[in-house]
Amino acid sequence: MHLPRSSSSRKQLPASRWRQRRLAQAPASLTAAQERQLATLQAISALLAGQHAIDALCRGFLRHVMDFSSAVGGTVRILDPHNDTVHIVVHEGISDAMLEEEHCMRNNDCLCGAAVAQGVIQIRDFRKVGAIERFRCQEEGFSAIAVFPIVVRDKPIGSFSLHFVKTTVLGEQQHGWLATLGHSLGIAIDNQRLIAREKEFAVARERSLLAEGLHDSIAQSLNFISLQVQMLDDSVRRGELGEAADVLPLMRMGVEQSYQDVRELLVNFRTRWHGSDLESKLAEVLGKFELQTGIASALQMTGNGAPLAPEQQLQVLFIVQEALSNIRKHAQAGKVQVMVDNGRDFSLQVRDDGEGFAADMRDQKTEVRIGLRIMQERAERLGARFVIDSTPGGGTTISLALPETRRQTA
């Protein structure tokens, strides 16, 4: 139902007026009703301070404010700004027929929509409303209604309504409290939305890390196995069964290493790395690399700084794995050196003596570009500076510099 444009009985009360009004001091001795109201306000404050799903938050809030105001029915409606509609998210004491008609309404329709669109309190005593002005909740048998906007940063995001079967006159102090509670509910809803977006971002980030981990380690192992399969196929075609027999152990080793990589990747994403021995982890990675490729590798560790936090160690490992994967696939290198200086600052270098590349060649090789981007993104997560130094025929060095100010405590 659309809100009539004019009515002599209408009373619009700006929410800001109630919010700015100072609450009267409680008398020395409280009546039972006052004690009940104060207890309800305390319960609402505790509810809004906790973490709840938005529907559970609104349901608990509605029940508390109904008890606070002696209402027998109520709704909480949330604005959908994209479609300019308001939707009932929770309700109490409302018939299914009314719910069916008003579960979604245009913004500014009826009193509940007007409270959202105009950001003002809407109050009606249906006994004083003329015959020309009829409301759906009046047909339900309610004698009065009070609707308060739910506000965040001075912008209404919804409303809550209180329905009465006998006209209950709420005092100005109660109006002020309810208007303030509408702002508090808005802040709580906004906080839950921020938490939900943060969780969504965390899930997306974890998926991205999983994809990068697959590219870093599993793809490297599978590519190694693919090369061995090609060698096996060539040997069989030539009838060189002796060569084929030599290839089979390498394939078996590649499959086993892929299996171990998958298990390690799953463990990394299911649990945090609680170890602090980065040197042994790097040595293990280099050992696998040398065994698979035949490229000589060396690890040099200096410095006596505190260990990096497990999350930062894991990112360093992934960067090294990606650098080694690029070397194996593109560098045609004879040796690789990994150097770590763990002092007050942390630095990492991965250096090879391979073919290298010119700066404009990075855009010509998709796999190289992907690998460099992955390393750059991981360095950004660390808060580290990432540099690539490469020239044709002069090898490649990737450098990572993590300043003391960005180090996390293990």
Automatic annotation (TrEMBL):
Protein EC: 2.7.13.3
One of the record's GO molecular function terms: ATP binding
Entry's localization field: Cytoplasm
GO CC, alphabetical: cytoplasm; membrane
Reactions the enzyme catalyzes: ATP + protein L-histidine = ADP + protein N-phospho-L-histidine
Signal peptide: none
UniProt key word Phosphoprotein: yes
Record-linked Pfam families: GAF_2, HATPase_c, HisKA_3
Record keywords, A-Z: 4Fe-4S, ATP-binding, Cytoplasm, Iron, Iron-sulfur, Kinase, Metal-binding, Nucleotide-binding, Phosphoprotein, Transferase, Two-component regulatory system
Cofactor names: [4Fe-4S] cluster
Matching InterPro entries: GAF, GAF-like_dom_sf, HATPase_C_sf, HATPase_dom, His_kinase_dom, Sensor_HK_TwoCompSys, Sig_transdc_His_kin-like_C, Sig_transdc_His_kin_sub3_dim/P
Enzyme class: transferase
Histidine kinase domain sequence ranges: 319-406
PANTHER family reported for this sequence: NITRATE/NITRITE SENSOR PROTEIN NARX-RELATED, NITRATE_NITRITE SENSOR PROTEIN NARQ
Name under which the protein is recorded: Oxygen sensor histidine kinase NreB
